[in-house]
Model the fold of this input.
Amino acid sequence: MNWTRLLERWADKLASIGQLRHRLLLEAPSATPDGAGGTTSVFVPVVTVWAGLHPVFVEAAQAPRQTGETLTHQIIIRYREGVTVGMRFSQGQDHYLIRQVIDPDALKTRLMCLCTQEHG
Done:
């Protein structure tokens, strides 16, 4: 993926604070005991943020026996420390797993998160 082209394409989205109009819950993965000696990964709430939520592209499933498509989004939030790959944003029944975190202008004003949408 060409990150430079993606950043240029969405540069206008970064300019306006009015673009941050979606209320999303940022969640972090946490391992909890499963009662059988192992652990189960669950997501725990971290903070609710205002975000820009933009569809970017659709990538076809490549794994065997996997059908359908994965809708991928770009989520823009105000800069905050601690946002990492593996965390996710939630809005109702939709979840957006963070695949990449970028500080697009290197000024610590915004974060651009490339996410894969999951339902349910």
Notes: The chain has one domain: 3-119. Residues 19 and 52 are 5 Å apart (CA to CA).
